[in-house]
């Protein structure tokens, strides 16, 4: 059994109507839940399926039926662009669930990437051996406006070729700064002693104080390739963790791609452990799009 779906985009109306949105959720159970959220903007439509915990086979079947019905309805109402469909499945620890993969396959999706959510307790003691070998850093908060272009340059050099992070610009940066959680005091930057006006690295942290001030995230961290090999990566992470602890955060969180073995090794060494795996399923034609 499932909850009745909310009204969907009407296929008998032109696809250039005002933006529309809707949601559907499988019956809640102690084990898990499947949710669908969809949006329509002009000729573009997106369906995001969120899989959490360990939903029952009945919930999975209901979700598969609803996904197929919804995508067919949306694609029947769009003139040009196919519906973008993505299933995001969260699993506890370093585990997987075959039902999520089966539902994804039924929607024509396949696994695109795996992200690990890592966590560690804070604070890190001053005398901890984790600090051994990390150079002292003179960090400061981002100077909004004055540092924007320098940060974009160092970020894009740090993440050259990365599908999600390597194409920042003024608009994308300002969009993030407009988020309610943004605080320039949580955005730590390291000046480049060899190049005036440039940055050698940064550690952008994130605390959603209105949600849970005891959790803080290492949101983005980067080192200019010209300064790699100087131990700045571990030192920037430690500086970010110390900053989070100074604000009252007791649990640090970060996300890392499963394929990034170097970063995973660094975070393992700094005491992070896997809290859950996030597997993103997409259509093969959407591989180049940002999830």
Which features does this protein show?
single chain, 291 residues, alpha+beta, Aminopeptidase, eleven-stranded mixed β-sheet, 6 helices, 11 strands, 25% helix, 31% strand, globular, disordered N terminus
SSE layout and pairings?
Elements: E1 20-25, E2 32-41, E3 44-53, H1 57-77, E4 84-92, H2 98-106, E5 110-121, E6 139-141, H3 148-158, H4 170-177, E7 187-191, E8 199-206, E9 215-223, H5 232-246, E10 251-257, H6 261-269, E11 273-282
Parallel strand pairs: 3-4, 9-10
Antiparallel strand pairs: 1-2, 2-3, 4-11, 5-10, 5-11, 6-7, 7-8, 8-9
Helix pairs in contact: 1-2
Explain briefly what this protein structure is:
The chain is of the alpha+beta class and 291 residues long.
CATH class of the largest domain: Alpha Beta
CATH homologous group name of the largest domain: Gcn5-related N-acetyltransferase (GNAT)
Number of helices: 6
The total strand number stands at 11
Q: What percent of residues are in strands?
A: 25-35%
Low-confidence stretches: 1-19
Outline type: globular
Helix/strand/pairing category: alpha+beta
